[in-house]
Amino acid sequence: MLANVPHPPRAVYVQDSWDEDRVVEDILDLRRDGQSLAYSRAPSKLVNAAKRYFGSWDNAIFAAGLDPDEIRLRRRPYSDEQMIERIRELAREQPTMNFGQLHRHPDGQALWRRFGSIEAGLSTAGLTKWPSRVLHDAYTPEEVVAALKERHRTGKSLRKSEIEEDSRLCLGITRRFNTLEAALAAAGLEWQWREMRSWTRKKILVVLRDRMRNRKPVTRRALGNSIASVILRQFGSLDAALDAARSGS
Length: 249
Prior knowledge:
The chain has helices at 20-32, 44-54, 57-63, 68-71, 80-93, 99-104, 106-115, 118-124, 141-153, 160-163, 167-177, 180-186, 190-197, 201-213, 220-223, 225-235, 238-247. It is mostly helical. The protein folds into 4 domains: 20-71, no CATH class; 80-124; 135-197, no CATH class; 201-247, no CATH class. The relative contact order is 0.09.
């Protein structure tokens, strides 16, 4: 110090603490406050955290139970015909893309949301030889069973739409067991198949009301992928399901 004048105190640096739950909750907070969730207008710290924990802003928006196509500023959501043409254009531009890369690509995710699965969308587009698949590298029956058990042990979804992110497992199920139901039965998880098919709109509302009444979190992560996927299909978004639960409809 000079002339007995103390240095000014240093500003305390507080590091933001992020995780998947906080990203989802901040997105939903912005939504409830009526603020834009477009990539270019959302807070940069939130966007960066979303990309770090979910791989992309679109993935984080989807994890929050919202439709990225409805969020974007660039254009209105694609029609089925436009979506098909877009995926065909992607095939022309990236002929060496593999199935896993397509699953992670925003257009692949949009294809899944529109048609229920990437395979269904590719079939509609007439793309039978794209993206590339390493058929000889598919899982053996034993590896399929082990992978399904590991997904169940770690809390990952066993829905086909979620399993498609693992191209080897998806191919192994098709080649070794023909259907996901048969593969789950071989892994001793057939009850999971029945549970996944049993989620009705009424049952979802009961669960949401119970969680809200008991002040439990209602984020996608807290609910689990199986329920969250059904919510998206039945209600269109998590917000719509929560509104229905609050209104008693």
